Amino acid sequence: MRFKKEKTKRMGIVVGIVLVLLGLFIFSLSFASTRKSNLLEDILKTSVMTIQKIVMYPFTALNSNKGMDQSESYLIQKNVNESLEKEIKELKKMLNLNKTLTEYHPINATVLSRNKSYWLQNITIDKGKKDHLKEDMVVVTSDGLLGKISKVYFTSSEVKLLTSNDVNYKISVSIATENGDIYGILNGYDKKTKTIQVIGVDKTSNVSVNDEIKTSGLGGMFPRGIYIGTVKKIKEDKYNLSKTLYVATKQNFDEIHYVTVLRGVTDD
To answer: Are 127 and 261 in contact (CB under 8 A)?
Structure first.
């Protein structure tokens, strides 16, 4: 009888923790992504990430392999090793990237979480206010521009990706042509072709397929010269007033593990 009461009590505690975690998580998602985070939201976000790690630890660290034959165990270990090798390569490429960013204090970060419902909108990284990160700081990988910081909490931050469908998310870019640089605005993502659109390019410009696209530095938010991608398709608008470019990046937006935040030398 006593054993049953203790078991019921333990189950109640576990259920309570899960309910609290779920409530905090849902509450944290209710905040609008376009609004700056306040102290309460910061505390909730940090609490959710901490509790999530604590609750999930027993299921990941103590996961039993009982009943698994050797062939299954070998395949799992092989997949783990291949994943680790990919992550090591990413880190090496990132370290090489850091050597070129002399005007900034590069802050390397790991992706903590990603909402499947907003897969191409944003990611959450493990660096925040305690690391002197601020909103609008530029985020890159070894393959070029990834996005910018949209929200900052104490121990984590949200990154708005280049693939975001936010109509107000515009980036000034330059296109390197044979006759010099011309300018346009990066805005919009085509899921079918997996290309980013550049609009507002003068119809008389001599843009060609494979021309390189980089940040222009205009507007002051994004530094000049960060690689974005190359032109894959050129289309004139229906009024024949400008051209729309379809740009292919080197980024694999389905597999983002490590990023670098560009923190200016005066942002301490």
So the answer is: yes
The pLDDT of residue 75: 55
The secondary element (H helix, E strand) that includes residue 41 is helix 39-61
Q: Write down the H helix ranges in 181-237.
A: none
Please classify residue 135 by burial: count the beta carbons closer than 10 Å to its beta carbon, then call 0-12 exposed, 13-18 middle and 19+ buried.
middle
Read off the DSSP letter of residue 101: -
Cα gap 141→259, rounded to integer Å = 5
- E-strand ranges in the chain read 104-113, 122-125, 138-141, 144-152, 157-161, 171-177, 180-190, 195-202, 212-215, 227-236, 242-248, 258-264
Q: What is the pLDDT of residue 237?
A: 80
Share of the chain above pLDDT 90, in %: 41
pLDDT category of residue 32 using cuts at 50, 70 and 90: very low
Looking at residue 160, its pLDDT comes to 96
At 37, which amino acid appears?
S
For the beta carbon of residue 28, count every other beta carbon within 10 angstroms: 17
Tell me the chain's radius of gyration from C-alpha atoms.
Answer: 23
Number of Cβ within a 10 Å radius of residue 96: 10
In degrees, rounded to 5, the angle at the alpha carbon of residue 12 between the alpha carbons of residues 10 and 13 is 65
Q: Please name each of the domains of the chain with its CATH number.
A: 2-61 (no CATH), 70-162+254-264 (2.40.10.340), 171-248 (2.40.10.350)
Of all residues in the chain, the percent with pLDDT exceeding 70 is 64
Tokens describing residue 79: 């997949």
| Whole-prediction pTM | 0.69
When pLDDT is cut at 50, 70 and 90, the band that residue 37 belongs to is low
Question: pLDDT band at 25, cuts 50/70/90?
Answer: low
